User: Fold these one by one.
Assistant:
Number 1:
Amino acid sequence: MSFSHSRLVYRSKNMSLLQSILTLVIGVGLAITTADANTGVGDRPHLETYDHPGHVPIGRPGFGAKITRTIEVTTKETESGYMLFEPDAIHIEQGSVVRFVIHNIGTMEHEFFLGSFDEIEKHRQWMRKHPDMEHDDYNAVSIPSGETATLDWNFSDKTNLEFVCLIPGHREAGMWGVIMVHDHLAPKSKG
């Protein structure tokens, strides 16, 4: 075997080894990325963020629980271009199971999405990159124009959280509000 032929065989073996290493590194990288996307460990918002360690507690779905309060919310657009929830500030007593009844009297589809301020900001950024993404979260509902949707939520933790429409541009147009969950509420005045 000549010197140049043996160098060629040596290079070929090294290239094959390098290709194998690169294939392994890419495969591991894809596996980690896929795991992150499915578990929410990466930057993609995920289902049931309210139920994962390290997230701000916002309560949990009210499946099968006795509804202790119903809150009517209206979504609308104004002639000047604002998009609004009414009311946009809600006080709730800790331990309440609330049924939100959301009426969309506007001409556009909207969402009602509950979350911590940080989670909503992450999700809003994700929605900018993926504007056609539809929500399938227990803490969110879509409300087509002229329709009504409901969302039941158990406010088991004292916290402050946000409700928002995450359709790109809607929050920026004013479609957001806050919920303050307290361990007590002031009695309603009579008269």
Number 2:
Amino acid sequence: MRLRPTLVTLTAVTLALAGCADNSANGSQAASPAATTSAAEKAPPAPPMDAKAVLTKLTVANLGTTHGTVQDEDNDPNNLLGRPNGYTSRASADLPGGDTEADKYDIDRGLVIEVWPTADDADRRSKFVQDTLKSMQMLGTEYHYRADQGRVLVRVSGKVKPSLAKKVEAAVAGL
């Protein structure tokens, strides 16, 4: 009969000690060195790029960009900046071959950078622009390149020579 009270006491003490166990890094349940090392080796994801950063990198790539400017809500020609279903940042620049007489910040001047919340949003924008240009050929053509896991859409006017467009493509691929 003494076995039952002893068993109950041992069970209660075991449960109490288990509830007080130290689960911190200093406790006996600390992560193994291999788990700590593999977690440390994983770099945190890079912060999303914005149009200014992309423009800076493309300017440094010596593509001939001039008059590079970041747009804000007051001078965004598409009125999409910061709006629902719109891009998060936008920049533009002149490229050799572009029309320097075109409206300020316009794609016809050479280069436009649009940063979207998701790659799907950038896909929809690219498809919309390309479909519109195909159906209304008098509007011209554009080259489209993607960066930052597809969120950045770099648009180059079809007026720019194909050899320069290839250089822009290579520069965007290196972002």
Number 3:
Amino acid sequence: MSVNREELKRMIDQIPEQDALEVYDFIEYLNMKREKEKLNGMIVEYLAKDEELIRQVQKSLEDRRNGLFYSKEQGLEFLRKSFEES
């Protein structure tokens, strides 16, 4: 869908100030949403290159298939020990 920007500007010029503030807020929301999506994409790309993380995810999937489940507390304890050892 193509938007006639001149028509859009004309419409904005004709609306009351309070409505113009809402339009401004909505445009800011759209810009933040776009930036967030871009950042999330960059994070996913970065994580996809982390071979150790991929290995850990694959191991976790394998553990789940084999019925090895851990509680939240057990997982946190494992992470604490892992960080202490490194």
Number 4:
Amino acid sequence: MTSTKQLFKFGITGLINTVLTYIIYLLLLHPTNATIAMGVGYGITSLLGLALNNRWVFQTGDSVRTVAWKYYTTYVFTWLISVIFAHLASDWSFLDSRLIPIISLMITVPTNFLLSKFWVFNKHNLKEVRHYGNQ
């Protein structure tokens, strides 16, 4: 599958997750609070994102368990990039703070896609590891 097609599917998955997270957030906001609502939303949609990326976007055919730790490591890494960027950019007087999340996404989405494609869901690397591990 071409990288362009994978990037498109990756974007669709991200859009679905974003909308679903927001819906879950709105449904849980009043019975709980914003922190719980957001946490549950992210938790559920991260599992959906893992499954969709594994089966639909990158089509590895591997079980979710084999790639989950890499997926969540990438998830945390790009979250850290986002938080660090927001912290640094908030001190830049020339940048409107309302643009920080947009610019952050311009950094983290490609980073997440590349890590997902070449590290998390890369079957070639998995085959090489299995091959060399059996020697």
